[in-house]
Amino acid sequence: MLLWCIWHNRNDKLWNDNVQMPRQIGRHALDAWNDWYSVHKLQRNNVSETTTTDLVRWEKPALDWVKCNVDVAFVSGSERTSVGLCFRDNGGHFMAGMTHWQQTVIALLLAMEEARHRGLDRVQFESGSKVLIEAIHMKRRGNSEFLSIVHDILNLMSTFINFEVKFVSRQANLVAHTLARTANSWAGFHRFENIPFCIEHLVFNEMQ
């Protein structure tokens, strides 16, 4: 965990010119480890009430709902993490998409902010991060960077009561994952109002 925090600080210095003191890095590593331990301890004790059958294929949302799939990818050679997200209606039709160079944990918050920007208020968000989704369902609080983002997500969901979050497997999240992996084709933040070629066949297949 400490090595991950040192690596993260190195990338933050490289891409954002932001440097943290060694004591801050150590504190973040301890917070992250405590988060990890707490979540996995609850999983082992079967305390979590959020476990659902993992979807192996993407499913259309209910009538009048929108589904947003979110995923991240580490782009080989760039040492950066990219985010991909895709909004689809209840017919499975592409509505909008987005890619961004960003940290893993922020991806879902970014998707919710985008939904709010577009005036969408009945949205099912699907993510491949089980730890994040369980932390949201358990309404975990804390001082770490991870839990501060969970707190922001919970605040947003308290305003938009028809925002739902769910964990899905990679097979059911292929569109968002493909967008995340191809994010290096565009510089930084990029919105799509028309369906990108890289996911066209996947979207059409999942409409069937």
Automatic annotation (TrEMBL):
CDD domains, per database record: RNase_H_like
Organism domain of life: Eukaryota
Pfam families recorded: RVT_3
UniProt-recorded Gene Ontology molecular function terms: nucleic acid binding; RNA-DNA hybrid ribonuclease activity
SUPFAM superfamilies, sorted: Ribonuclease H-like (SSF53098)
Sequence ranges assigned to domain RNase H type-1 in this UniProt record: 69-182
PANTHER family linked: BNAC02G40300D PROTEIN, POLYNUCLEOTIDYL TRANSFERASE, RIBONUCLEASE H-LIKE SUPERFAMILY PROTEIN
Name of the protein this chain belongs to: RNase H type-1 domain-containing protein
Organism encoding this protein: Trifolium subterraneum
